[in-house]
Design a protein that fits this description.
Elements (H helix, E strand, L loop, with lengths): L2 H4 L8 E4 L2 E4 L2 E3 L5 H8 L6 H8 L3 E2 L3 H11 L1 H6 L20 E10 L2 E8 L5 E6 L4 H15 L4 E4 L3 H4 L1 H9 L3 E4 L9 H19 L4 H14 L9 H6 L32 E5 L7 E11 L2 E5 L6 E4 L3 E3 L2 H5 L8 H6 L3 H9 L3
Parallel strand pairs: 3-4, 5-8, 8-9
Antiparallel strand pairs: 1-2, 2-3, 5-6, 6-7, 10-11, 10-14, 11-12, 12-13
Length: 359
């Protein structure tokens, strides 16, 4: 028996084939030729081996995947250069929240990589927001909070330190109008805002790694946030996006088990125009309202690709098309009467008989 096949024997009761794809439970079994590419996707955010393993358990499998992940993270130069040492920090323990957006924590990080960064995180889901700030006054923080609250609603509580930009009259007025209770942590005790302290630490380490790979700050920030939001936190736990939205954010890893999108999803779609049909196409640039065209194919519901004298494959809506009836369809090639018309003509044989009848 082939050595590669032997590795799957202990999992044989967990294997199944769906649409020609081999699965172990919900995970796609990755062939050896694609494992390096999948490892790159898993390590896109440059998180540690433990979190990458948690992420992999939701998407993919192969015998020895945990060892492969360990080797990859240990061999990543950016992770080795900027890897963090584990410390047992005595972070303040907050009461657990029961649903999203009950308590939100906010803090600044920096100066870091030349900027100050505003971090906002939900205590229930750990869903993060990080914004690169040019200015850090209260009015600038309020602008960011207003945008975030417009997406998710007003939180019940907001936790911050005693920085002037967080405790100003302007900030207090803003929060009071939105019925948000403001909780301040003790002075000179930043670890009381433990949720943000953890996020600050993870954010800085990950950003250093991503920037080391050659990414600009904005792209590095987007990649960090995206990967953090899809990463499960703790064994068997859901990701921040699942806890906040009730669904998993679609990533490139989801493409491993998705069926290819078909050009026409609705088989019962009624085609108003046929491929190859001569049509008139709406022309918005010339004095004439319409120009000649030809249907190349259907793009979807009420959408078509057409060829015009100036564009080879133009996407248009049904409302921008009309039939080109043409004279060939109006007049028959024959100049004689049609079959139905012939039936309406008097029968000459009958007329001759009537004419020859004598009274």
């Amino acid at each position: 028996m082939d050595e590669e096949i032997k590795k799957y024997q202990i999992f044989q009761n967990e294997l199944s084939v769906v649409n020609g794809v081999l699965f172990r439970n919900i995970c796609v079994v990755i062939p050896e030729s694609l494992r390096e590419k999948v490892l790159t996707l898993l390590h896109d955010g440059h998180f540690g081996a433990t979190k990458v393993k948690l992420l992999a358990r939701s998407y993919c499998f192969w015998p020895g995947i945990s060892e492969s992940i360990e080797l990859m993270t240990k061999g990543c130069e950016s992770c080795q250069l900027y890897g963090d040492t584990k410390t047992n920090e005595d972070l303040h323990s907050w009461q657990k929240t029961e649903k999203p957006w009950q308590r939100v924590h906010i803090d600044f990080a920096g100066p870091f990589l030349g900027f100050m960064w505003l971090l906002v995180t939900d205590s229930y889901s750990k869903f993060p927001h990080v914004v690169k700030m040019g200015r850090t006054e209260s009015k600038d923080v309020i602008v960011v909070l207003r945008q975030i609250f417009s997406l998710y609603g007003n939180p019940v509580q907001l936790v911050s330190d005693n920085g002037r930009n967080f405790i100003s009259n302007e900030m207090e007025t803003f929060l009071e109008k939105r019925r948000v209770s403001h909780i301040r942590t003790p002075v000179f005790h930043p670890m009381s805002n433990g949720h943000c302290e953890r996020l600050v630490k993870t954010f800085k380490v990950s950003m250093k790694k991503l920037v080391e790979t050659g990414l600009g700050l904005d792209e590095a920030l987007d990649r960090f946030l995206f990967n953090f939001r899809i990463m499960p936190h703790g064994k068997g736990k859901e990701s921040p996006s699942e806890l906040l939205f009730g669904r998993r954010i679609r990533s490139n890893l989801d493409a491993l088990r998705e069926e290819p999108i078909k050009p026409i999803i609705n088989k019962e779609l009624k085609e108003k125009f046929k491929k190859g049909e001569e049509v008139y196409v709406r022309d918005y640039k010339s004095e004439k309202n319409w120009e000649h065209g030809k249907v190349n194919g259907i793009a979807g519901s009420n959408l078509y690709y057409v060829q015009t004298p100036t564009v080879k494959n133009k996407l248009v809506h049904t409302s921008q098309l009309k039939q080109n009836v043409g004279t060939k369809k109006i007049f028959s090639k024959s100049i004689g009467p049609t079959t139905s018309e012939k039936r309406m003509l008097p029968d000459r044989s009958v007329k001759s008989k009537v004419g020859s009848y004598k009274v």
